[in-house]
Amino acid sequence: MRSLDSNLTTAQNQMNGQIIVKIVLTSGATTYTYYAPGGSVLTNNIERVSHSETPWSQTATVRIDDSAQVLYALSLEGYTGTISYGYNVSGTDYYSAAAPLIVKGQEQVSSGGNLKCTLSLYGIPDQLDDDHASASYTLPDSDTQTVKTLINAIAGATMACFSHTTAITVDWDSEDSLIDTFAPKDYFRVSTGNTRLAKIKELLGYTKCVMRVEADGDIHIINPTVSGTTYAYEYNDIILAANHTFFSKVYRNRLVLPNKIVVQSSSDHAPAYTGNYTSAASFALLPKVDYKEGRLASDAQATAIATAGIQKLEVEHEKGNGFAPMNCGQEVHDYIKITDSRENDNRIGNVGYLTRIFDINNRNYPYTIGFGFGDISRAGTVGISPSADGTQRQFVSYEDFNRIIGNLQVTDDKIIKRLNELIMEDTVPKWHVTQLLQVPSAGV
């Protein structure tokens, strides 16, 4: 979680102060700033913000009143947009900035005597998914580059196949035992057209580490806290100065699937190594095993990779969500706790997705955050949020949840895209043939 000024933390916990939002748009030396709903700056341009974040995507739509006929004459595509949330306390504005986004679309609407401008923005993870390899890139089985080295090369645009892209700084905030020791060797390759995001995700998949883009515009790699009693943030429905209340939560139990991972050397490797790790509770109820191969250095390394895989599955399996007044500093991967006095229980986990909403026309819920534990693509019935008229809370479907808390885009299209990439690839990292391989000759 981003560090907040103590005045801002107190204000959002107590919901005490005037809510404020701003977006700063910059391109070179040119800057435009729009505010809502006022604070120390007497303007009221921003009407609505819907701002969603996952580890692999950051998107926002910002609707601005253009009654002054200023924005219609501007072309803001390509501008960097930084959205900040906060409170005005006793005449002083306290903000917390989110990760920078890029304006990819601008829509002007003139209707009923009103002029509106809607900006569509997307973040660095989405831009990484638009960066495609210009050529294939392969490694020999003797290569010594570690996961960390390869991620630095991809993000820093020093890997030859991504040298045409923009370099992005990687900050290594905390590391596990694998990220700077495990070398995937010939089991890592880049095919022409593969994206930077896909290859970074693949490399992080060997480890416990995760990525998120933060307010400084850097990729931050962290080994997340997943257990214990030290939380990045706590929510509690008993409204006290030290607590951040919440409107509603969903409590869910799910099996971890698969719940055992076996990592092993290929049959043609010598010496051969193997290791495994199990999510014990789920395995006891419904055992499902996944098998992975790699070029391994020891049984211990195989076990460490299997352990990292199970930890990520346990963190990512969707186990509930919450809907609360705005938390200006909440980030994905934060380890948080919700205490519910109504049910006399609590929920603990890592934030997998969140959506911030500011809506000047919603009198009941103008300034909110919806968040979930785990991966939204693994969710079932998603949660509770305001009814359409804002008068009461209700259970909503998965589809409605996406609409209500900000049209959060589940990356089904990216999954399909990646499947097509695999089907269409004319080369693969490595073939291990266990039965007869028949290769047709040209002209047959």
- Content-based structural category: alpha+beta
How many beta-strand runs? 24
Largest sheet: 14 strands, mixed
Global morphology: globular
What is the CATH third-level topology name of the largest domain?
Answer: Phage tail proteins - horseshoe like beta roll fold
Tally of individual domains? 3
Q: Give the DSSP E fraction (strand runs of 2 or more residues).
A: 25-35%
Q: What's this entry about, in short?
A:
The chain is built from eight helices and 24 strands. It is an alpha+beta fold and 444 residues long.
Q: Would you kindly provide a written description of the structure presented here, covering whatever features stand out?
A:
It is built from eight helices and 24 strands. The longest helix is centred in the last third of the chain and has 18 residues, at 299-316. It is globular. It folds into three domains: 1-125 and 327-408, Phage tail proteins - horseshoe like beta roll fold, CATH 2.30.300; 129-223 and 412-424, Phage tail protein beta-alpha-beta fold (3-Layer(bab) Sandwich), CATH 3.55.50.10; 260-316. By secondary structure, the chain is an alpha+beta fold.
Task: Please write out the topology.
Layout (H helix, E strand, L loop, with lengths): L5 H9 L3 E10 L2 E7 L9 E9 L2 E9 L14 E10 L2 E6 L3 E11 L2 E10 H5 L8 E2 L8 H9 L14 E3 L16 E2 L5 H9 L5 E4 L5 E4 L10 E4 L11 E4 L8 E5 L9 E5 L1 H6 L3 E5 L5 H18 L3 E6 L9 E6 L4 E15 L7 E7 L9 E4 L6 E4 L1 H7 L7 H13 L20
Parallel strand pairs: 10-13, 14-20, 16-18
Antiparallel strand pairs: 1-2, 1-5, 3-4, 3-21, 4-8, 5-6, 5-7, 7-8, 9-11, 12-13, 15-19, 16-17, 19-22, 20-21, 21-22, 23-24
Helix pairs in contact: 3-4
